[in-house]
Amino acid sequence: KSKQSGGTQSCFYTNEMEQKISRKVLLESGLRRALERNEMKVYYQPQVDRDGKGIIGVEALLRWTHPELGNVSPSEFIPIAEETKLIIPIGEWVLEQTCLQLKEWKDRGIVINRVAVNISTIQFHNTNFVQMVRRKIHSHKLPPSSFELEITESVIQDSFTAIPIMKEIKAIGCNLSLDDFGTGYSSLRYLKDFPLDTLKIDKSFIQTVLFSEKDQAIVDTIINMAAQLGLKVIAEGVETEDQLEYLKKNVNIGYQGYLFSPPMDAGNITTSMIFTEVKGSQRF
Ligand code: C2E
Ligand code: MG
Ligand code: MG
Ligand code: MG
Predict the structure, then answer these.
(1) Interval between CA 151 and ligand 2 midpoint (Å)
(2) Cβ 263 under 6 angstroms from ligand 1
(3) Pocket test for ligand 1, best of 75, 88, 98, 118 (most atoms within 8 A of CB)
(4) 177: CA distance to ligand 2 center in Å?
(5) 150 alpha carbon – ligand 2 mean position (Å)
């Protein structure tokens, strides 16, 4: 029997490749245990109205602290969770957490009208998805209209199957928004057929809106189109007063961005809410 040739294979890989692969393997196996080990947490980022005075709602954003690697960004681990289908139980857990959080806010008399939850395309097309959403919302006795499910343009690539699912979600009473608008397959032709409530302009457009007239033309066009289609608009990634000033000329707009608040722990959101309620017109 030949001896195992341990280690010799590694010379086919460069160090950098090896590191990338082992990080991915670590993340993948870590993701399998992340929920049971309590390593995940949902943060909330406020969505602010046109005047920057009131809170329209919050977006739930997942956070993961890996025991060895520390904080891992969702843009790194969500794609792995999608590849491995772990996004299905993880996504369900996120929805459960937001239900519990909404209830807690409610019990404490804190009014949060809407929570937006990101839905991955894999999760959206999973057979039990609609039923899962319905069951969760009903079992917590929450108004379905308190939820806005955020899908991306990639959901829509398969519009033949996507539209009926979207309609079922709407039939439950939830809102639907199209996230990262303008970055994916902008199937404008289909936009009128989707039962959407909100269009979220991707932050890349907001970050360049003051750079040139062309950048402004794109943002203005998206906002005008949304208005014509009867959709609300949220500008993502608003970081400066100048960007806010530029966007403010539109009637039908809300914002989300570091200028107002980063995503944060539910406890801190509560504090800001009370602050805005007490101070009324002040921006937090
Ligand atoms: P997204 O849904 O487009 O969320 C907005 C992202 O922009 C968040 O990144 C947020 O922290 C960030 N952001 C907010 N304001 C600003 C700003 O002013 N400037 C800049 N530069 N960024 C800002 P985050 O939390 O890292 O999440 C990244 C993406 O990961 C999300 O993008 C979403 O696609 C995905 N994601 C996060 N949580 C979940 C989840 O629970 N389920 C699923 N399926 N995806 C999630
Ligand atoms: Mg989102
Ligand atoms: Mg997104
Ligand atoms: Mg986005």
Answers:
(1) 8
(2) yes
(3) 118
(4) 9
(5) 6
Residue nearest to atom 15 of ligand 1 (CA): 257
pLDDT in tens, the chain (284 residues): 344 544 555 566 678 877 887 899 999 999 999 999 999 999 999 999 998 888 999 999 999 999 999 999 999 999 999 999 999 999 999 999 999 999 999 888 888 999 999 999 999 999 999 999 999 999 999 999 999 999 999 888 888 899 999 999 999 999 999 999 988 876 787 788 899 999 999 999 999 999 999 999 999 999 999 999 999 999 999 999 999 999 999 988 999 999 999 999 998 886 555 444 433 333 33
Using CA atoms, how far apart are residues 241 and 236, in angstroms rounded to an integer? 14
ipTM of model over 0.95? yes
Residue 127, both tokens: 């057979």
Alpha-helix residue ranges (DSSP H) falling in the chain: 15-34, 74-83, 87-107, 121-124, 129-139, 153-156, 159-172, 188-191, 203-207, 213-228, 241-247, 266-279
